[in-house]
Amino acid sequence: MLSSLSRSVEGHVVLITGAGSGIGRATAHLFADHGSYVAVTDIDLQRVESVVEEINQSGGKARGWELDVTDGTKIKNVTEEVSRWNSENNEVIDVIVNNAGVSMPVAINDPLMEQHWQSGIDILLSSHMRLIRESLPYLNNSAAPRIINVSSTEGVGGSAAASIYTAAKHGVVGLTRALAVELGESGITVNAVGPGPIRTGMTDEIPEEAKQKFARRRVPVRRYAEPEEVAHAILSLALPASSYITGHLLMVDGGMTIKNN
Predict the structure, then answer these.
(1) How distant, in Å, are the alpha carbons of 5, 35, 72, 113, 169 from that of 109?
(2) Residue 229 CA to chain centroid, in angstroms?
(3) Residue 171 is inside which H or E element, if any?
(4) By the 8 A CB rule, do 8 and 38 touch?
(5) pLDDT digits over 251-260, tens only?
(6) Within a domain: residue 1?
(7) Does pTM top 0.85 for this prediction?
(8) What is the CATH number of the domain that holds 167?
């Protein structure tokens, strides 16, 4: 036997924020396909119910919670309920995926910048901290505890009129690295993924011709990705066998951030 390390997440309890659409929805389906107990959370209850129904009808195991990631009390309650899902005696969460987000294109001289800034940082960065803090007691009861944060190519670069989003995504990378060091002795790994151009609700309004032109010019693989491709990166970092990978930002961008011309 070459290795005793497991590449199975069957039976693991996985909590995903922003799981009602896009990357979160694809991630929920993928973990369910691999036998995990998937806690689908999103601010949109209708979307939550839809994803839960899709998973359960296909033979997976999912439950849903309406969750505003800016509400600390709600996060506390949801994590407590999720931790008791698959265990009679031991409150456990094996994997959390901090995915909830929002696009906030606001110019620095916008009169409402201060208001948008507070709201954006709260949703895109502070929410990660809240979920991690409330999940820690349950992650500590897991045999393979994993935290995966969703950053972006904006987490290593920057774009005009995107200072809120960019600052938050840089912050997600910093939080990931700091907590990888802080939580390492507990056996909890903390990693992030950095999606590039993905076909999600955030990019639906971009005309197809514009998508293709951008991809041909900026992305070495010359296309937008599908949400499932990011989901597979998240799953890889959540595997028990990925126990020595921590503090890493895994770019899922078709090579966009390493292209020089």
Answers:
(1) 52, 49, 31, 7, 21
(2) 13
(3) helix 163-183
(4) no
(5) 999 999 999 8
(6) no
(7) yes
(8) 3.40.50.720
Total domain count for the chain? 1
Cβ-in-10-Å burial (0-12, 13-18, 19+) of 182 comes to exposed
Element (H, E) at 76: helix 72-83
What domain range includes position 191? 13-251
Q: Beta partners for 65?
A: 41
Residue 226 covered by a domain? yes
Distance of alpha carbon 216 from alpha carbon 222, whole angstroms:
5
Residue 14 pairs with which residues in a beta bridge? 38, 95
DSSP codes of every residue in 124-163: IIIHHHHHHHHHHHHHTT-SS-EEEEE--GGGSS--TTBH
Span 51-82, pLDDT tens digits: 999 999 999 999 999 999 999 999 999 999 99
**Catalytic (active site) residue 165:** yes
- Find, among 123, 131, 148, 125, the residue nearest to 82 by Cα: 131
Q: Which one from 37, 165, 224, 244 is the annotated catalytic residue?
A: 165
